[in-house]
Protein backbone atom coordinates (compact mmCIF):
# COMPACT_ATOMS: atom_id res chain seq x y z
CA UNK A 1 0.00 0.00 0.00
CA UNK A 2 2.95 2.30 -0.60
CA UNK A 3 2.16 3.31 -4.16
CA UNK A 4 3.51 6.80 -4.83
CA UNK A 5 0.72 7.56 -7.31
CA UNK A 6 -1.84 7.48 -4.49
CA UNK A 7 0.12 10.15 -2.61
CA UNK A 8 0.59 12.74 -5.34
CA UNK A 9 -1.27 15.52 -3.51
CA UNK A 10 0.56 15.10 -0.17
CA UNK A 11 3.86 16.97 0.06
CA UNK A 12 5.04 16.28 3.61
CA UNK A 13 3.63 15.22 6.97
CA UNK A 14 5.31 15.22 10.39
CA UNK A 15 2.62 13.05 11.93
CA UNK A 16 4.02 9.48 12.31
CA UNK A 17 0.47 8.03 12.36
CA UNK A 18 -0.61 9.81 9.18
CA UNK A 19 -2.53 7.58 6.78
CA UNK A 20 -2.87 8.47 3.14
CA UNK A 21 -6.49 8.67 2.03
CA UNK A 22 -7.18 7.00 -1.25
CA UNK A 23 -10.37 7.23 -3.25
CA UNK A 24 -10.76 3.48 -3.57
CA UNK A 25 -14.23 2.10 -2.85
CA UNK A 26 -14.66 -0.34 -0.03
CA UNK A 27 -16.78 -3.38 -0.75
CA UNK A 28 -20.09 -3.38 0.99
CA UNK A 29 -21.21 -6.40 2.97
CA UNK A 30 -23.82 -8.52 1.25
CA UNK A 31 -27.36 -7.98 2.49
CA UNK A 32 -29.37 -11.07 3.44
CA UNK A 33 -31.45 -12.59 0.64
CA UNK A 34 -34.74 -11.49 2.13
CA UNK A 35 -33.64 -7.83 2.19
CA UNK A 36 -32.26 -7.67 -1.37
CA UNK A 37 -34.51 -5.61 -3.65
CA UNK A 38 -33.64 -6.97 -7.07
CA UNK A 39 -35.26 -5.48 -10.16
CA UNK A 40 -35.63 -7.60 -13.29
CA UNK A 41 -36.11 -5.93 -16.66
CA UNK A 42 -35.79 -6.55 -20.37
CA UNK A 43 -33.03 -4.56 -22.06
CA UNK A 44 -32.37 -4.17 -25.79
CA UNK A 45 -30.26 -1.00 -25.80
CA UNK A 46 -26.79 -1.12 -27.36
CA UNK A 47 -27.11 -4.85 -28.05
CA UNK A 48 -27.89 -4.82 -31.79
CA UNK A 49 -31.54 -5.69 -31.18
CA UNK A 50 -30.82 -8.74 -29.02
CA UNK A 51 -32.86 -8.96 -25.83
CA UNK A 52 -31.25 -9.61 -22.45
CA UNK A 53 -32.66 -9.92 -18.98
CA UNK A 54 -31.06 -7.35 -16.69
CA UNK A 55 -31.03 -7.86 -12.91
CA UNK A 56 -30.10 -4.74 -10.92
CA UNK A 57 -30.21 -3.61 -7.30
CA UNK A 58 -27.83 -6.20 -5.83
CA UNK A 59 -26.07 -4.90 -2.70
CA UNK A 60 -22.99 -6.87 -1.74
CA UNK A 61 -19.56 -8.10 -2.68
CA UNK A 62 -18.45 -8.80 -6.23
CA UNK A 63 -17.91 -12.48 -5.40
CA UNK A 64 -21.52 -12.89 -4.23
CA UNK A 65 -22.77 -11.07 -7.34
CA UNK A 66 -20.77 -13.39 -9.60
CA UNK A 67 -22.01 -16.43 -7.67
CA UNK A 68 -25.66 -15.38 -8.11
CA UNK A 69 -25.03 -14.63 -11.78
CA UNK A 70 -23.51 -18.05 -12.35
CA UNK A 71 -26.44 -19.71 -10.57
CA UNK A 72 -28.97 -17.92 -12.79
CA UNK A 73 -27.06 -18.63 -16.01
CA UNK A 74 -26.72 -22.34 -15.20
CA UNK A 75 -30.38 -22.74 -14.23
CA UNK A 76 -31.56 -20.90 -17.35
CA UNK A 77 -29.06 -22.68 -19.61
CA UNK A 78 -27.83 -19.47 -21.26
CA UNK A 79 -24.84 -17.16 -21.21
CA UNK A 80 -24.42 -13.76 -19.64
CA UNK A 81 -22.22 -11.79 -17.29
CA UNK A 82 -22.11 -10.27 -13.82
CA UNK A 83 -20.33 -6.93 -13.49
CA UNK A 84 -20.89 -3.32 -12.46
CA UNK A 85 -23.44 -4.40 -9.79
CA UNK A 86 -25.77 -5.94 -12.37
CA UNK A 87 -26.36 -9.39 -13.86
CA UNK A 88 -27.03 -9.89 -17.55
CA UNK A 89 -28.73 -13.11 -18.70
CA UNK A 90 -29.08 -13.62 -22.45
CA UNK A 91 -32.63 -13.78 -23.74
CA UNK A 92 -36.03 -12.72 -22.44
CA UNK A 93 -36.21 -14.87 -19.31
CA UNK A 94 -37.79 -12.41 -16.86
CA UNK A 95 -40.45 -14.77 -15.50
CA UNK A 96 -38.06 -17.71 -15.13
CA UNK A 97 -35.44 -15.54 -13.38
CA UNK A 98 -38.08 -14.14 -11.01
CA UNK A 99 -39.26 -17.65 -10.18
CA UNK A 100 -35.67 -18.85 -9.53
CA UNK A 101 -34.85 -15.85 -7.34
CA UNK A 102 -38.00 -16.28 -5.25
CA UNK A 103 -37.25 -19.99 -4.73
CA UNK A 104 -33.74 -19.01 -3.56
CA UNK A 105 -35.14 -16.62 -0.97
CA UNK A 106 -35.00 -13.25 -2.76
CA UNK A 107 -38.62 -12.48 -1.91
CA UNK A 108 -38.51 -8.74 -2.71
CA UNK A 109 -37.55 -9.31 -6.36
CA UNK A 110 -39.89 -7.85 -8.96
CA UNK A 111 -40.21 -7.38 -12.71
CA UNK A 112 -40.19 -3.81 -13.99
TrEMBL record:
<dbReference type="GO" id="GO:0006417">
    <property type="term" value="P:regulation of translation"/>
</dbReference>
<dbReference type="InterPro" id="IPR050318">
    <property type="entry name" value="DENR/SUI1_TIF"/>
</dbReference>
<dbReference type="InterPro" id="IPR036877">
    <property type="entry name" value="SUI1_dom_sf"/>
</dbReference>
<protein>
    <recommendedName>
        <fullName>SUI1 domain-containing protein</fullName>
    </recommendedName>
</protein>
<dbReference type="GO" id="GO:0001731">
    <property type="term" value="P:formation of translation preinitiation complex"/>
</dbReference>
<comment type="similarity">
    <text>Belongs to the SUI1 family.</text>
</comment>
<dbReference type="GO" id="GO:0002188">
    <property type="term" value="P:translation reinitiation"/>
</dbReference>
<dbReference type="Pfam" id="PF01253">
    <property type="entry name" value="SUI1"/>
</dbReference>
<dbReference type="GO" id="GO:0003729">
    <property type="term" value="F:mRNA binding"/>
</dbReference>
<dbReference type="GO" id="GO:0003743">
    <property type="term" value="F:translation initiation factor activity"/>
</dbReference>
<feature type="domain" description="SUI1">
    <location>
        <begin position="45"/>
        <end position="105"/>
    </location>
</feature>
<keyword id="KW-0810">Translation regulation</keyword>
<keyword id="KW-0648">Protein biosynthesis</keyword>
<dbReference type="InterPro" id="IPR005872">
    <property type="entry name" value="SUI1_arc_bac"/>
</dbReference>
<dbReference type="InterPro" id="IPR001950">
    <property type="entry name" value="SUI1"/>
</dbReference>
Amino acid sequence: MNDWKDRLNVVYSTNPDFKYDTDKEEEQDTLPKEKQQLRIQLDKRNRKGKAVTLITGFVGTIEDLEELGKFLKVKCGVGGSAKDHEIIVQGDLRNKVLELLQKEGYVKSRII
